[in-house]
Every structure is written in structure tokens, then in C-alpha cells.
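Why does residue order matter? Because the sequence determines the fold. Keep that principle in mind as you read this record.
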Amino acid sequence: MAEYVDAGKAVDWSSLSGVVGSAPPAVTNVGYERLLHARSEPQNWLTYFGAYDGKRYSPLEQINVDNVRRLTPAWVFQCGSAGLQAGGSTYAFEASPIVVDGVMYVTGWDGYCWALDAVTGKELWRYKHATPFDTSLCCGNVNRGVAVAHGKVYMVTPNAHVIALDAETGKVVWDRTNGDVRAGESATLAPLVVKDMVIVGSAGGEFGVRGHLDAFDLETGERRWRTYTIPEPGEPGSETWPADGEQWARGGGNPWITPTYDPELNLLYTGTGNPAPDFDGDVRPGDNLYTDSCIAVNPDNGELVWHYQHNPHDLWDYDSISENTLFEMDGRKFLGHFNKNGYAYILDRTNGAVERVFPFVDRIDWGTVDSKGQIEVHKYPDEEGVPVHFYPGPGGGKEWTHNAYSPRTGLFYVPVQDVGATATRRRREFKEGIPYWGAGVAVDTEGMAGSISAFDPATGREVWRWRNEVPMCASVLATAGDLVFAGEPTGEFNALNARTGELLWQFQCGSGHHGSPSTYSVGGRQYIAVPSGWGGWIEGFAPGMLAGTHGAALFAFALPD
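Structure:
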């Protein structure tokens, strides 16, 4: 029987969920050594991005450009309704399924976690966290997945808990609070296991909280360290915040997407979110470190080793939380980051030095960034009550949903959003637990577009583009079968030729895609797993305008027997 534990109370869910409460001991022997070499066992998808480097690439090639047209659903797990919740926010299925030796672990909205048979989709156990109904959330009641190690499944919850579950039963092993839900702190990311720690980041920047990255002991749940992404007075970077007052204490900068990790350099790379308030820069003069940055952190102690700030003194809500994908080029170590501001950054990951910056969206008019990262600002919402239109809008040229990188082609594959917006600055005094945006935002509903675009990081050249009439708002997956898989907000799940961009296969899943597909194999048969279910949140779109608002499901596709 699966239980949840919250505020000291244990509740038995077996009578409500029909939980079997038993899964094979698949993750008992999953530890740091296996995670270091995750891609050497391509039958599994052991960690959030598939491996520490964030490439979202699989060496599996049974499904390939020659036979993908035969792909068909192998099973569908119906996991309940997704759509509107009280207050007009949304539920969405944003996870990346983890698979270990035939067992799948996946999270949903509102504190759900499931263990499934990866061959049949049969539910093995279910966990439901008790999330307070009045939890303050910016952009939907969502969760992006789990981490697994040493017989446990690790997850975060909307009300900022970090939880370890027994991987065989779904029962709680330990439960730790990692944020003040009353102040607007929350958590949405998939944890990352590094060595004997589980790494998590906070969310809630739209409520004026102070972002932090945390490490917990895998076995006991004891916090090992906490690194704040906004420096307090006297710390390095504090000079980029007002010297008087407490603006730094409500500065945002939350690292709400899973880090990547280079074990040779022993560095974690995580992006940080927007400063608070998002659009009213007059109350926070300065560059506002370490918001809108890539920060490199020593996982042993949380020490910040280097940083690169993509958007100093952000006035457009251009979080830099997108993944930092690790790759090698000409014998050197780089990371690739496609920022909300419409520009891609190739950085030397040993020290943060800029190698190359190039645009990846057609329409950019907020400012210009040259090839070395120097910024010239053109416009921003600078006067109270005066609307300012800009491209890309606050949802970005690419938001949190992830690109992929194929070492076979040497290309990045990027889900692109080409959408503008109008922001009108409206000053609001800070009040704990109340949204702290500093503007009203209206998103363009006409003229929006999107694409899956392939880029060569060596030159910044766009190699091909698969165009779409709506923004592409789901993560992509690349495989050794020379395929790129990508879901649309209108429900289609697509397979493209990784070398040409040709659409090879398509399946309508019945609800929009805003999650992260993964791939695995069991008994020599390759599967593509994709969560489907989205109420339509993107860059302030009215919920449901792009996608079906109900019927979240997890699909697994395979070639016919």
C-alpha cells in the first residue's frame, strides 16, 4: 500500500487508488557509478536528461528512419484529468519518464508519482502527496520527474517538499521541507543524484522569494548544503543589488530546472530564473546577480565556481533556466544554452568564457547580442502604464522545454517559439505570497509560429527547420536511429529525420504536449515514451486555447511485433 506523509499525518490510499503496492527491485543497484555511465546501458533511461550531460540522446537505433513509419502505440496509461484548476492555472503532464530494467517511474501534477510496468503500462504502485489547496503557484501545478538510486525514488512537491519513496512499495522513506510555501516557494524540477546526494532547486521567483540550490543526503534526507542564487550584503555579487533595503532577499533567481553535471570537472551547471519583480527594474538597479545566469557549482560543498549572466538587469522575464547541454568540439569542453531572449550561447564550460552567440528565432527586437555576448538594449517597459511590445515575449524563443544534441550529427535540435507580447508596467509593492510581476502582459494570439530547428554549434548556422503554425512547447528527443521526436501543443507527436528535418511519422495523442519524451528497451524491443496532457499554458496563452484540457495519458510507442 502506498502512503503519503504531510504535516505528520500518514494516509492510506490503497482503498482509493487500487494500488498493488509492489514493484520489482529494479533500482536497488542503481548508484553513482551506474549514473556516471548511464549511456552505456541504453536499454534504460536512468536520469532526467538520459545522462548527466543533458544531451537527451539515446544510442538505441531499432527504431530508425527506415522503419519509423510503422511505429504504433504499444500501450497507454490513463492517469487522470489534466486541465484547469481553481484560480485559472493549469495541470500539465511535464515529466520525463525514468526507466530501469523494465520498470518506469513518472510523476504527474499535484504530487502524484507512479511506478509502471514498462512493457504493459500496468500500474504497480501510486503515491499521492497532500498538497495544500491554496499553494501559490506561478505557472501551473506541474512536476518534471524523479531521480532514482539505492532502492529509492526521489521527487519534489508543489509545496516545496523533497521526498524519498521506497521504489518497491511507494511508501515514504523520508520527507523534508525545502521552502516556505506561505511566501510562495514551490518546487517543480526532477531531482538529480550526484555521488551520495540528491540535488534540487527551488521555484517561486514570481512571488519575490530568494532562489536556492540544495543537496540532501540520499539515505537520511539530511541537508548537506544550500547555495543561494542571490547574494546577501557583503557577499560577491551583492554590489549588483541596491545597497539599502531588502530587495536582494526577494530577488528571485530560482534554479527550477534540473542541472547538468561534468564529473571530470566536478561541476554542476544550472540556470537561474528572472529577478523579482520581473518587469519593474527601477526598484532593483544593477545587474542583479546571479539571476538569468548559468552558474557552475561544486557539488561537494555548493561553492559557486564561475557564472555567466545572459541577461543583466532583466526587464523582459527572460529566465535563463533552460538546460546547459554539455558537448565536446575540437577537443574542448563546451556547453550549449538556448536562452529565452532568442539567442544561443556556446560557453567554455571550464570557465564560462563565451565562444559564440547567435540568434535562433527570426523575430527579436528587444535588443541585440553580438557574437561575444555584448548587449545593446532597444526597448523595454520603462514607463508606468505605457504598453511596450517586444519579441520574443516573456515565454521566450525557447522556454524550459529541452533541446537535444546528437553526437552522430553534431547538431542541436531546438523547440522554437516565435511569439511576441505586450507588457505594461504596473508597480506593485511587495507583499509576501502575492505575485510580484511589476507589469501586466498580453500575448500575441495572431502571427505566432514555431519550429523544430537544427543548429551547428561550430558556426551558429541553422541547418534545417521544420516549420509549424503554433509554437513548439515540448522537449525533443534524439536517437541513434537518426530521428528527432517532438510533440506539438495541438496533440501531434512527430518523428523527424535528424539530418534533413523531413517529417516521417505522426500520431495524434488527443491532448497537447508540454513534457519530455524518453526511450528505452525491454527484451530487445525499443519503446518511445511520451507524456501527453496539457491545459495550454505557454507565455500567458489562455488555458486550453491550444490544447485539449483533459485526458492526460502516457503513451509508449514501438514497432509491431
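The chain has two helices and 40 strands.
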